[in-house]
Design a protein that fits this description.
mainly alpha; 3-stranded antiparallel beta sheet
Length: about 90
């Protein structure tokens, strides 16, 4: 993942949520566990760490865009539909 241009924490949080959601939706209908998703997205170069990814997962869940099925992370229908609408 590349670092966002803005240094503001809120901008960074939204950027991490964007990257995490994009990854989850792009893999649909395949799903990853928390650990698989973190390993896939963790990147030392951009300082995106486990905590930032876990925080974004919780924020996306609160927003109704993902759900947890045990350890598996799944996009909701709303997230999949929105991604299809915004796709170029």
């Amino acid at each position: 993942m590349c670092r966002p241009s803005s240094g503001q924490p809120v901008d960074r949080d939204l950027w991490v949520e964007h990257v995490v959601l994009l990854e989850i939706v792009s893999l649909h209908p395949d799903h990853l566990t928390f650990e698989e998703l973190i390993v896939r997205l963790e990147d030392q170069a951009s300082d995106t760490d486990r905590t930032a990814i876990m925080d974004s997962l919780q924020a996306l869940k609160r927003s109704g865009l993902i759900r947890f099925n045990g350890d598996v992370v799944e996009p909701t229908f709303a997230a999949v539909r929105a991604a299809a609408i915004f796709e170029p």
